[in-house]
């Protein structure tokens, strides 16, 4: 096997994170300093693709608690993952499988 060394090939031209700029591609969760930002992600469309960016230096996950509705699996440092929001409106708490004190809520509707 060859050609697997480019680490996912993200865009390298993205400017530094700018909190005031809405994400073009839809809802997004940033993981930084062992926190989910925003901790409560509101107004996510049912079935929307949610992007998760891990800006920490350790792996994290976004794992729905209880419902099992979504789970990114391990997101390595500096990597981005996506998951599909539940198709039913409601509030979906999640945590990090590795650091259970990390908590957030995804609200669909
Ligand atoms: Cu974590």
UniProtKB/TrEMBL annotation:
Short name of any one Pfam family annotated for the protein: Cupredoxin_1
Occurrences of domain EfeO-type cupredoxin-like (ranges): 28-108
SUPFAM superfamilies (alphabetical): Cupredoxins
Residue ranges, compositional bias (Low complexity): 12-25
Signal peptide positions on this chain: none
Ranges of Gly residues composition bias in the record: 1-11
Region (Disordered): 1-25
InterPro entries linked: Cupredoxin (IPR008972), EfeO_Cupredoxin (IPR028096), ET_Amicyanin (IPR052721)
Protein name: Metal-binding protein
């Amino acid at each position: 096997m060859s050609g697997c060394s480019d680490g996912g090939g993200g865009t390298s031209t993205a400017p530094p994170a700018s909190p005031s700029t809405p994400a073009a591609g839809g809802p997004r969760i940033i993981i930084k300093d062992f926190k989910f930002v925003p901790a409560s992600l509101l107004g996510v469309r049912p079935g929307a693709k949610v992007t998760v960016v891990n800006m920490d230096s350790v792996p994290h996950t976004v794992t729905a608690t209880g419902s099992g509705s979504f789970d990114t699996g391990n997101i390595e440092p500096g990597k981005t993952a996506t998951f599909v929001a539940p198709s039913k409106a409601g509030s979906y708490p999640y945590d990090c499988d590795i650091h259970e004190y990390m908590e957030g809520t995804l609200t669909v509707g």
